[in-house]
Amino acid sequence: MKHYHDISSRGNNMSLFGNIDIFTLGLYAALVLIGLLSITSASYDSEASNIFSMSHNYMKQLMWIGISSVAAVVILLLERRYFHMFAYPAYVLGILMLLACLAVGREVNGAKAWFEFGGIRVQPVEFVKIATALTMARVMSAYSFNIKRVSDLAKIVAVLFVPLAIIILQNDTGSGLVLGAFLFVMYREGLTKYLYFPAIFTVALFISSFIFTPEAIFITLLILFSGYTLLKTGALLGHVRLLAAMFAAMLILTVATPLSGYQSIMIVCSITAVVLAVMAIKTRTLMLLWPLLMYVYAMLFVPTCDFLFTKLEPHQQNRILTFVGLKSDPRGIDYNVIQSKIAIGSGNLFGKGYLQGTQIRYDYVPEKHTDFIFCTVGEEWGFFGTLVVISLYVALIFRLMRMGERIGETFGRVYCYSVAAILLFHVWVNVGMTIGLMPVMGIPLPLMSYGGSSLVAFTILIMIAIRLDASTTDDNIYAL
Amino acid sequence: MTRFDRGYQRFLHLRLVVLLAAVVILGRLFYVQLIDDRYDDMATANIIRRPEVEFPMRGEVLDRNGEYLVRSRVCYDVMVVTANIPKEGFDTLRLAQILSMDINKLRSQIKKARKAPRAPFLVTGYLSQEAKLVFDEGHFDGFYTRFRTAREYPRKIGGNLLGYVSEVTAEQVKKWEYYEAGDYIGVGGVESAYESELRGEKGVSYRIYDTHGALKGSYFDGALDVLPVKGSQLVSTIDGRLQEFAEELMVGKVGAVVALEPSTGEILVMVSSPTYNPDLMVGRERNNNYAKMLHDQRNPQFNRAVKAKYPPGSTFKLVQGLIGLQEGVLRPRDMHPCSEGYSYGSRKMKCHAHRSPVDLRDAVATSCNAYFCYVFKDIITNPKYGAIREGVKVWNEYVYSFGFGRKLGSDFYGEGTGFVPTPEFYDRKYGRWNYGSVLSCAIGQGEMGCTPLQMANLAAIVANRGYYYIPHIIKGIEGRDSLDARFYERQYTMVDSIHYVPIVEGMWRSVNVWGTSGGARLDGWDVCGKTGTAQNPNGKDHSTFLSFAPKDNPKIAISVYVEHGGFGSAIAVPIASLIEELYLTDTIKRPQLVEQVLNMKPNYSHYDKMQKKYDAARAAKK
């Protein structure tokens, strides 16, 4: 088998650096380099007198690349068991940092999520990502751990929930959502797929609850689920009759009584649901219960969602509304996305050329060297450039997953998958944001966005994975 | 772990998820970057914002001696796009100071501009170059300047002669494709008549701005830009010094002075009084100044020199005499009696006391009313035409040929026609009419109306002994070899050259021997002249004088008309004489006469009453 082959081919090679996955390191270096070039372009000023002055963002980023390299070497020199050993202390330290930040942190863009030391800002959540990944790996690699056991599942949910809660309190929900990426890992580790379908269903309901009226959602779902059960049971006539009866009842209620259309649908569907549930149990056609349950869930979720929305902060409401296209505010939130799309969209096939991007150079793209660094690639290198960058990310994520598989033990696998998941989340949300696929969240593009704490954190994150992969034969993992 | 291992299956699923995410993102990028090309235009629109109009320098106007009458100077409009004003506002007080504007005025302008926040709005104009630099340093986001030119008048003369420059009206924008809202256009006088020469061609430029509105350079290095073309320079026929002198002499008088060069038809002087300092029509106070003039009942904006309809008075006797000679009903030696007037029926056309009888020359010299009543009667009752209305028709044709009763075709828009009564006119007015009804025309009274330009043209015709060149105000246009051909053609009257001899003789005698124009004598220059004293219903007689000099190879022909100035010899003669003196001799040897003229203040109770009534009506309205 391929994977066994991989592992065996590494044999007992004792040279640490000889085992380092050069391909991953290469991908890492390529992305950092492209990031540096993009930052240079984004902050390029042809009139600047001293191009090597430390006041330039690219020089600062270069310094951070240096610091990251040192960190990388240190990580690669560490013995593998330390990562296992330090997982919990790091996690506790991370939680404390988050709490400290909540107390004495600096507020940026409404989120109290930053420390500031002499002009250098550090976001503890970057560190928490690493600590959480390690902790998840350690918890899930415990000998007795079984994800299918509720108590064990509760453990990892708790590991994720504590930092998430604090991050939400910091008003930095966007960064907090990254913890959701661990669902990716949990799937690999055998979490039942029946948890994913409701999750996807919930997200879909959430988004459509803003775009469509509840009536439209319910009727659509009714038809969808009927179709599903029809496929499963084949009872065509009964279905048609039932649907016809329901629609007739809704129509009569709406027209003949003072009830609104919405109320009529709720009443008819509730009664039908109860009746169908009773029938399903009686006739032991339990497969009917699934869609029924989800339908009831939808009927409860949509109004709740509307209600909860009113509880959100105005800026969060606005972001959601602009994202689903219900609100257009070209000078406000929409402005960022419109300008970002203009920059990327005007890149066409091969872009305007390095240092030639007008939208970038003339400041039309906000946050152009941090969160919107991808615009530089899009505008100056065109679709060709974005294709290359996305491919590099996909290759890196694939490689990390491959590494996780070939490590052959749970700690390393969970960790590698965690890194892959965090990267996937960041790339998806960040790039999605620049092209209007995702709402605007303050999430940097890994390795490319300007900013020291993000670069160092992702470097450590990836280097630990490389380090873990480099010593698959190290027997001392469980020595502690 | 095998291929069928659960974990491996899930590895494959998750790979699929990653791949799917990548495909969605790349699909979206493919659409945004390659399919949807709206973004290209939007990117261009971002940095260019709009093609910017580059206003050309308006052409200058020189006088006949190469001296500037009108110059253009650089100035700037201050514009605002209120949508680009930062939310936190700006230092209103400082901006008001830089623009030297009242802060409340600035606030109200911005309030107005906010009604259309994306549209450029003119905050104020006429920002000097120095103030513009200070303004630029202030970096007021949302505000920007626009290059303009403003008119400047070194001699401050010729207000209603030169016209002024104003923003185009909505109708003009609709009518002519060239103009857009905010453009300037010449109004009145030379500015209007030569608008298409003076305005030049607008250019367009595409400039790159960053998101803060700061200029970053030219789009495509300016390859798409079109440079504005400066307006042509015009050379006027006006003699600046003479014009200034004439305007000075006319201060306090209502009327007009027109002087022509008979050999070319070039207008040397054209004064319409009261005139105004053309600088008043430039700058921020211009609307107020304009309103003031608008409410002035003496109407300084009205170019009397080409538009007024004045009774020519006795100066018209020259025309009568010439027609009589051509028609053969008058010979120079013919004597007519004058008993202080001319009686017809029970009525009498009065005349002043002079010796009687007189021949044509002396009739011209003394301006005898009776003599020309005989002449006019002989013309229109000439048995060869049968009826009096036929006679009047013939007379009409002659008069038209002198340029009366019609536009001369000068280069002035809105040139007046004057008025020459026709048989049809008398039909309408009197129904039945006879010689007595039209007699007042004999001496240029009654319904006769002439523009001062037409009268000056008459002086030129007599000076030329029978022809004229169409009077014009511009003699040269930069980049053009010649003017319109009509300005180079001799316009002959219907009276033969020979008949002018006794008339000229009479005019000469009037000045130099014995007559009403003695005040116009200029030693060594053989001045010829004819006074006029025109009765009018509004007050004292109008004073007028027609003259040319010298008698042979005349260099200047002039008409002076002073409303309510009394006898022609009283005001019009000294004014004309001084202008001739300055033009012919280049000096003024009679400073005391200048002083005298300056002190002559005709009584304009008629205008004063109108003004009072008008002001009262305005006050009542308010």
Would you write up a description of this structure?
The complex is a heterodimer of chains A (480) and B (622). Chain A is mainly α and 480 residues long. Chain A folds into two domains: 2-199 and 348-479, no CATH class; 212-310, no CATH class. In chain A, 69% of the residues lie in helices and 3% in strands. Chain A has a three-stranded antiparallel sheet. In chain A, a hairpin with a 2-residue loop joins strand 2 and strand 3 (120-122). In chain A, helix 9 (196-211) crosses helix 13 and helix 15 (333-345) packs across helix 17 (374-407). The longest helix of chain A has 34 residues, at 374-407. By secondary structure, chain B is an alpha+beta fold. Chain B folds into two domains: 53-83 and 90-236, Alpha-Beta Complex (Penicillin-binding protein 2a (Domain 2)); 240-281 and 302-606, 3-Layer(aba) Sandwich (Beta-lactamase), CATH 3.40.710.10. Chain B has 23 helices and 21 strands. In chain B, the strands form seven sheets. In chain B, strands 2, 3, 4, 5, 11 and 17 form a six-stranded mixed sheet that branches. A five-stranded antiparallel sheet of chain B has the order 13-12-21-20-19, sandwiched between helices. Chain B has a two-stranded antiparallel sheet with strand order 1-8. In chain B, strand 14 (341-344) and strand 15 (347-350) form a beta hairpin. In chain B, helix 10 packs antiparallel against helix 21 (572-585) and helix 14 (360-366) crosses helix 20 (500-512). The longest helix of chain B is centred in the first third of the chain and has 30 residues, at 6-35. The radius of gyration of chain B is 34 Å and the shape is elongated. The mean pLDDT of chain B is 87. The A-B interface holds A 1, 3-4, 184, 187-188, 190, 331, 338-339, 341-349, 358-359, 361-364, 378, 382-383, 386-387, 390-391, 393-394, 397-398, 401, 405, 408, 417, 420, 424, 427-428, 431-432, 435-437 and B 1-3, 6-8, 10-11, 13-15, 17-19, 21-22, 24-26, 28-30, 32-34, 36, 38-40, 42-44, 46-47, 83, 208-212, 216.
